[in-house]
Amino acid sequence: MHRAMxxxxxxxxxxxxSLTTATATAKRLRTIxxxxxxxxxxxxxxxxxxxxxxxREDLETFFYNQTLDHFNYRPESYDTxxxxxxxxxxxxxxxxxxxxxxxxxxxxxxxxxxxxxxxFLVDTAVEFSSLLxxxxxxxxxxxxxxxxxxEALKNASTLGYFNSAQAIADxxxxxIHIKKTLQAKDSPVIVIGGSYGGMLASWFRLKYPHIAxxxxxxxxxVLYFDDITPQYGYYALVSKDFRGASExxxxxxxxxxxxIDEVASKPDGLSILSKxxxxxxxxxxxxxxxxxxxxxxxxxxQYNKPPTYPVNKVCGGIDGGGFGDDLLxxxxxxxxxxxxxxxxxxxxxxxxxxxSVGWRWQTCSEMVIPIGYGNDSMFPPDPFDxxxxxEDCKSLYNVTPRFHWVxxxxxxHNIRLILQRFASNIIFSNGLRDPYxxxxxxxxxxxxxxAVKTVNGSHCLDxxxxxxTDPEWLVAQRKTExxxxxxxxxxxxxxxxxx
Amino acid sequence: MHRAMxxxxxxxxxxxxSLTTATATAKRLRTIxxxxxxxxxxxxxxxxxxxxxxxREDLETFFYNQTLDHFNYRPESYDTxxxxxxxxxxxxxxxxxxxxxxxxxxxxxxxxxxxxxxxFLVDTAVEFSSLLxxxxxxxxxxxxxxxxxxEALKNASTLGYFNSAQAIADxxxxxIHIKKTLQAKDSPVIVIGGSYGGMLASWFRLKYPHIAxxxxxxxxxVLYFDDITPQYGYYALVSKDFRGASExxxxxxxxxxxxIDEVASKPDGLSILSKxxxxxxxxxxxxxxxxxxxxxxxxxxQYNKPPTYPVNKVCGGIDGGGFGDDLLxxxxxxxxxxxxxxxxxxxxxxxxxxxSVGWRWQTCSEMVIPIGYGNDSMFPPDPFDxxxxxEDCKSLYNVTPRFHWVxxxxxxHNIRLILQRFASNIIFSNGLRDPYxxxxxxxxxxxxxxAVKTVNGSHCLDxxxxxxTDPEWLVAQRKTExxxxxxxxxxxxxxxxxx
Lengths: 499, 499
Hints:
The structure is a homodimer.
Chain A: H1 23-26, H2 48-57, E1 60-67, E2 80-88, E3 101-105, H3 111-115, H4 120-123, H5 125-128, E4 131-135, H6 149-152, H7 156-159, H8 164-181, E5 189-194, H9 196-207, E6 214-218, H10 233-245, H11 247-264, H12 269-276, H13 286-302, H14 310-320, H15 327-339, H16 354-365, H17 386-397, H18 405-410, H19 415-419, E7 426-431, E8 449-454, H20 472-498
Parallel strand pairs in A: 3-4, 3-5, 5-6, 6-7, 7-8
Antiparallel strand pairs in A: 1-2, 2-4
């Protein structure tokens, strides 16, 4: 199995090779599991469109004239681009009441996508009398520098400005602008984000405490950098999730990789596999199938949401055996259970998403999350290969990933020792079934830098729209978070009255 | 008086007009009082050279391959330059003992200059068993990117990388490198700086708490940005210092400006003034004289050190009246008392210093310290003119100062409200006679973010070499600082043993 292609299906589309001429090498690039709060559409089991529309009615769209490079003073760094943000003022108690401002920090996707799924702001708006602000991350959606997406993504010279430090500086500038415009100097700001956006939220509170009073960082794997977290954490958890759902399912998957290789090695092996898995296009290499399965399992585990619980679905299909009692028939049954009845599976023709294009750059510049496959997983062992990773990125963009930069700029090593006497007002929330929780903050650091976790939760559940079917533990998680944020705000009001 | 040229003599040399073609406009540039820990050589009344040599014997020089742009991933941003740092390991207790590392953060000068004056590290080395590290600021001394000073200072395209955020990122990278090299992972780092370097120290602790356990920020006017501190603070304090030394001296100076203008307006006025003040070159404008006097008074107040106390010296000369009892004769007497017997005064031929060249760029990019002259001063009122300031900078460098950036990135507004529940381990030390103390943190913010001040102190006294003649209040100030830093370190050791 070529691990390099792992997870491309998480992006629901192949890597955009047109961005580079080094197609052959590009194929080897090991991508990092998607970090968005929302999983593949197939798993979005609440009626997005309807929810989205009613939420969008209350939103006004603005564009801020954003500085291209906050940390440089070359004439080009003064260039600006229009950065999109949206405001819902329907529930706001107003500047005079010093009513709070809840700011959602957009991540590696157009902000629109998250509006349909991230409900924490709207769901709590009445309770907080809050102004709701949604900020779009630079280089995504409509917030593109250099005039066009084509130009912005052309090469490292234009992509160079695309990184997290610039992104949170953008957010600082916009939030100051909004507060000034609304004359809401004393309104406390709470920043909220999920996954990569959750990292941004916690980092924003650390770097800009004078702008945000607190942060809710949902499923933010801030510790999955350098050597802080064991590289095998992610897939160990995927495997644990499957084993927890069904031991036979887990064993079936574990044995399947060898079986696929064995069949593939036969004279007509690839065509047998193509038929068996009803592939949309004939397989040219067994790795295509294995990578697809790999990312299917990872995705199911990461977005293992109630009420349907994808891991249970996949395992139901595998254990059910409706497509033959043999190993591969069972595995195919898992795919069908996951995706429903389709004319074909694997190798689907797909379009490139902004997330896959943008996130690939981000992972090749600074967001190096070393994820490998260890012995305690249902996948063949395959340690993270930094050297190969760097070479792939170099051939793609002609720049070397700055492997240590995230821990240099944001920290992470000995986080408890460092932050217990520094910083305050950060919630790190996690669902422990989320494979990314292996790189999350799972223990309280201090009275106000706290971990809120759920045993059965998956990726970013707490910041999604509340639903009738939400289990009690999820309802309780959100209640805890709201209570904590209220305490921050009340303490702030008390402080404010004393100064 | 053309306020634009104020303080050029603080840099001991005229502005480097060769940097720009806009000479006429350049002349109008209002420079900002020098921020270095050390004043003009004339006031250095301890035997620098001797001290310097003995201190330097213990120093080893290193060069670190530093990244040009930490916040950008364009291919050019990966360029590197050799950054100088010096280490004194004579007193270090070693990595096994987790003995502390005291790091002096270089500011707007070659690091050599500070070695001769900044003694806090060496003076406390035995007490702390500390490793001593001195880091040179990018674009100064031997830490020049782009191969040569000429190239580095050529224009905004090469100067653009010259700013505080990049500088403290440099420091982060070097400190991590040093700790790694020495296998001193657990040795606590205390950063120390004076004036602009003091701002860097406090900002470093705020942005990189995972790298520095604490900061001693001496005479750091972190609040002299935007509208946090009244713009008249600096000159109000200069005036207060003079009034405190001698009411008649203060009144003489206060009345002298009009007198100078009156004489200058006579047919032969400038030549009368030139003769009166024994100028080295004939005055071409009264502003030359007035700016020189202005900066002399400011410098005397800022570096009003024991045991000689320059303000007393100047006022002794003015009140003594050895050069005539008339107003201007008295003022000249002040000059002579300040500078000693010379063949000529004012308009001295001088060389351009690195500080004046570098700091001018820094004040024209981000370090916009709005200093104006109010009614409660001995100078003619002259409010800070941001518009003219921006225009001057634009004509010099073709870029606009980012007036609000310092407060956006580092904060400063409502500092007590913000930092009382965030951050820890920062000492803001000030001497209240230092005009820059008007922009300093003068009250405790929390138990561990504290103000240590002396009523009679001037600029950066506490971090200079201790001397026999030091008054008790200065000795006490240093003792307090050492005690506080020891508490940080002991608490850190206790924490470390628990994790």
